[in-house]
UniProtKB/TrEMBL annotation:
Protein's UniProt name: Sugar ABC transporter substrate-binding protein
CDD domains: PBP2_TMBP_like (cd13585)
InterPro entries (UniProt xref): Bact_solute-bd_prot1, SBP
Pfam families in the record: SBP_bac_1
Organism encoding this protein: Microbacterium hatanonis
UniProt keyword Signal present: yes
Signal peptide: 1-21
Keywords associated with the record: Signal
Coiled-coil residues: none
Length: 434
């Protein structure tokens, strides 16, 4: 289980937006026209995250082993992307290794020619073993068969539940969406301050959490050809269920709730179930901020008509600046940082949820994680889907559109009509990009 001290540290890191520049040597990190064979320094740019925190220690070790100094520049996410756009628009070679958010910028950055093609790199070393990375994570960092990065953090949608409430009611942990609805309805007790479920109900934030419902019903935001598909019968059923759970068994004002508000309700013991990302586990295991430390359980997303299919996304991947003059050296550093040994070290010592299956299968590496969560991740290969939102550059606009039918479901409107209208708008957005 996470220690309280580590939980606090993770929370502080995730919440931080401040810029941190860590020079591991007195030297600057610019390329300076060095030839590949003469590389003595590399510069890494990344977002503030647990992975970046762990990277500081690993980078020092890398310098000791290779003599190559590594400078790390870390920023809050928004500032990071702004920084990238300014520098890459001018073809800057000031940095070599670049960590980025796959679903937010990879399409734009690859279209602009800013990301190096890493396909040959990842397939060239059998001992490093690209196949050891979870399939959904490998899929997430590719576009049209081209690999643009190595996944260094992963995140899944899971079910959190109150073990005490289920036991008192004689209920088993739900394994299907039908069983989930029954359990939520049974435990819904608003008169005594406990709601059946808490989830994101705000129009844009809810879209990512809707995704696993769509997948498990055999639907998706887009079909195999990339066309809008949120008005299919399967998608409408998934949307109706999501809306029904919040309408009938959720808290008041749910359409104004994102993950912060919904998770707070569960942490206060005011919801029997909470469905969201497994990265929030530390919130409920911190005794200073949670009243469910001893009663929180973790379960895999339940099976729908098409099985249990949930997002297994990559919040951060690490790639190479196309304009770097040290691409081979940058790859050697990435390969070393993401090898099996170091992925296990990050998992065990910094609780970084990496993408290597071998790391999660190592009992020592996962000893600090809740057993229920570990079991879900170990079983992710057959269930994970590598995206949790529409796949296009204008993803923010798409989420605004896609969230509409769910709001209609929560408010008791005509979901089918809302889905048809939203699908037309979404298709227009897709067409505008093409």
């Amino acid at each position: 289980m996470f220690t309280t001290q580590r939980s606090r540290r993770l929370l502080a890191v995730l919440a931080s937006g401040a810029v941190l520049a860590l020079g591991l040597t007195a030297c600057g990190g610019g390329s300076g026209g060095q030839a590949e064979g003469e590389v003595t320094e590399l510069t890494v740019v990344a977002a503030n995250s647990p992975w970046t925190e762990g990277l500081k220690t690993l980078a020092t070790q890398y310098e000791d082993e290779t003599g190559i100094a590594v400078t790390i520049e870390a920023y809050g996410n928004e500032q990071l992307n702004d920084n990238y756009k300014v520098k890459l628009n001018s073809s800057s070679s000031d940095f070599d290794v670049m960590a980025f958010q796959v679903q937010d910028v990879m399409r734009e950055f690859s279209r602009n020619g800013w990301l190096a093609d890493m396909t040959e790199y990842v397939s060239s070393d059998a001992e490093w073993d690209w196949e050891d990375f979870q399939p959904a994570a490998r899929d997430a960092v590719q576009l049209d068969g081209v690999v643009y990065g190595v996944p260094v953090m992963t995140e899944r949608q899971i079910v959190y539940y109150r073990t005490d409430l289920l036991e008192a009611a004689g209920l088993e942990v739900p394994t299907t969406l039908e069983e989930l609805e029954t359990a939520i309805a049974t435990l819904n007790d608003p008169d005594n301050g406990v709601f059946g479920i808490a989830m994101r109900g705000s129009r844009v934030p809810l879209v990512t959490q809707l995704s696993s419902f769509l997948y498990s019903y055999g639907a998706d935001f887009q079909d195999a050809d990339g066309n809008a598909s949120i008005d299919t019968p399967e998608a409408v059923e998934a949307i109706e269920l999501y809306g029904k759970l919040l309408k009938e068994y959720g808290p008041p004002g749910v359409t104004n709730m994102g993950w912060v508000e919904a998770s707070a309700l569960f942490a206060q013991g005011r919801a029997a179930f909470y469905i969201d990302a497994d990265s929030q586990a530390y919130t409920f295991l911190d005794e200073n901020n949670s009243s469910v430390v001893d009663t929180v359980g973790f379960a895999q997303f339940p099976e729908g008509p098409d099985g249990s299919k949930f997002y297994n996304i990559v919040p951060q991947t690490v790639g190479i600046n196309e304009f770097s003059q040290k691409k081979d050296a940058a790859w050697e550093f990435i390969k070393w940082v993401t090898n099996e040994e170091n992925t296990k070290w990050l998992l065990e010592n910094e609780t970084v949820p990496g993408a290597r299956q071998s790391a999660w299968d190592d009992d020592a590496a996962v000893a600090q994680f809740p057993a229920g969560l570990v079991e879900i991740v170990r079983n992710v290969a057959d269930h994970g889907v590598g995206h949790d939102r529409p796949q296009l550059e204008q993803v923010a606009a798409a989420r605004e559109i896609v969230g509409g039918p769910v709001i209609a479901a929560i408010e008791g409107g005509d979901v089918s009509e809302a889905a048809t209208s939203a699908n037309t708008q979404f298709q227009d957005l897709l067409d505008s990009e093409n």
